[in-house]
Amino acid sequence: MSPSRAVLMVGEGNFSFSASACQLYSGSETSVTATCLQHQEEALRHEGAADNIQTIKDSGGTVLFEVDCTKLGECASLQSHLFDRVVFNFPHCGRKSGVKKNRELLRNFFLSCVQVLAEGGEVHVSLCNGQGGTPADQPKREWHNSWQAVAMAAEADLILSAIHRFESDKHQSYKCTGYRSQDKGFHVEKALVHVFTRSLPYTPAHLLKMEEVVEGEKVQYEIPAELSDYIFRRFLCSHSVHPVKLVQDFLLEGLAKKWPVSMMTETIPFLLTAKQLQTHCCGIDSAQCYWIHLLQKDLTSDTDTSADKENDPRPTETLLPACLTSGKGDRVRIKGVESFRSACSLDIDPEGESGMHMLRPSLLPQMEELLAKKEAIINADRHGDCEGSDESEGNKKDEACGSCNGVTSLLYGISGVVFRNVPIGLWAMPAFHELLIQGVFPSESEPGKLLGEKLETLLAPFGVSIVTEQGGLRLKAQPVGLVGKVFASDVSDNNNHVRITASLNLDLLAVLLFSLPDWRLLWSHDPRFLKQFSSHPSPGTPFHPFCLYPEPFTFDISFWTGPTWEEKNFHAVVREASCGTVEQVKLIDRFSHPDLSQTSYCYRLIYHSHTHALSHTRALQFHKHLETLLSSRLQVTIR
């Protein structure tokens, strides 16, 4: 423990642990406040209590009696005091109390101690082997027979951040008492200390109103609320230590040994037109696109401004209410412009006029447009240079211009976040960072095969293998599935060359290369996540979770729908209502009424978070909010 720390001991019996701690901290600036539930006369009946109390006071500590650890905020002596560490050793309700009463004790203690816990403070709870209910207990008790320490702490927005052996050898004078309200001690041989810390609060989903220039037209639109936390995170900026940036650097460095990769730095819009997607075939299913209603289109926008300024996507209103409408057909006015709810925008017919824009599902259309512009500029410059040069200089130019007609000896790359309207699943991402690499090579050299083999060499140590399928190569790994692909396309006016493109999912690769338990960790705002990558660890360095053994909670939801039902709308509302904590959705029952044009659906939802404290109470709140949003947005009748 670092100097100048305040420690609160609760639930003391004979004060032997506090006395031992005072001796351990001797010479430091750590102050100890030791408390017990009993009044002074009763506490002094414990063997050795008087001597231990005197040791605490001689060390500069404080001793308080009649302090209820479940009501610390009401203790007058503790008010206006905050502690860096709160310690509760072997909590027990006394006598032959069952696990339910002891769970309640833990829950009330956690809710109480956060009132006196300093920012960045820790709560240490020592439990006998098996009581905590985590995999660290050996043997582990059945869940219903444990104290469910993680779930009880989550009720107070605390997460289990560390767990270690109770070091009784450091506290030689500690005599454990209180077993069944007697001087008899608990079994501490395999006891574990559970270290809890505060969780960040949940960030509610909100609408983001955006303004961008797309193909020379200034447009305004709204980012669907369930995607609001994936915008403007800047994970790939030059000074970033985010794992997706580390993975990108690792890949580019590995490829550069055979082919130099020139990364494009132009800013490109989040919005894409249907025409752009059709022109540059990406192999993207239009059903997986987030189709967007435009709020406003300015056909007279100044197209003479710089490309970077034009394409700089920015929010014009960063925060809007999460519930702007009460129904699918309801509309609201924002700055005099008519707008629709995000869930409604998913119903757009891609063939219709209003569905001509989407959030980019791939960077390929914009990359190929940028490369075409670069090639046109290079060819124009070369043509001008060749006309004014002599024959010898012209020959040199011809030698240097071996990349005419798009042929080049290097690779171009671009990376950024893309969006896919996919159902909720363990490895299904509504947004992820795509790295695109493209080059033009002579056909006879089999460049696609060479690039695939190089990628496999780099990624094989992390479980990635290449599978040849129709249309190209697929990079796959268990359990995440598809992490990338390599494919070829024709080069116009050049039959002897082929364009090779590699598309890689940096998020899933980061999961594999750093052994992350959940891809959602990549989007965590908790500074403890990025802290582990501040030293630029090499790929293969395992991530150490700051939220250990989070508990999942399962809820079912049933409702009647009308004759039209779009399941992707349901998934969008689930993501928004649950703040992204639902990791699995499964349809378990479907029934169509023979007389009414209605269908009943029953879904099973699993709430689980590796980034935030998730209690049963919180999960139930999310689930009730989901019922409300489904009724108002999708006009379903909750059963």
Question: How many individual domains?
Answer: 3
What is the CATH superfamily classification of the largest domain?
Bira Bifunctional Protein, Domain 2
Give the N-to-C terminal Cα separation: 54 Å
Radius of gyration: 31 Å
What class, by secondary structure content?
Answer: alpha+beta
Low-confidence stretches: 301-311, 316-355, 391-407
- CATH first level of the largest domain: Alpha Beta
Assign the CATH topology of the largest domain.
BirA Bifunctional Protein, domain 2
Which geometry do the CA atoms define? elongated
Q: Helix count? A: 16
Number of strands: 27
| Percentage of residues in strands | 25-35%
By CATH, the architecture of the largest domain is named 2-Layer Sandwich
Average of pLDDT: 84
GO molecular function, one term: rRNA (uridine-N3-)-methyltransferase activity
GO cellular component, one term: cytoplasm
InterPro entries: aa-tRNA-synth_II/BPL/LPL, BMT5-like, Fdx_antiC-bd, Fdx_antiC-bd_sf, SAM-dependent_MTases_sf
Protein name: Ferredoxin-fold anticodon binding domain containing 1
